[in-house]
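At this stage, I needed to go through a protein sequence along with its fold in token form, as given directly below:
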Amino acid sequence: MFESLQMGKYAFYIWTSYGLTLVVLVANIIIPLSQERTLLRTLGRKLRRKRRDNNESKA
């Protein structure tokens, strides 16, 4: 098994490509979730501000 993990003289390039692929896949999950959370917070603030302004104008 250890010999198959070595992959000859190309081991560095193969494991580097596996690592970069993993980084990209994880980033494709984390970045949209982070952006969604930020967007929801922003929209929530705008909605609260709009409701507050409507209540103040009616009073």
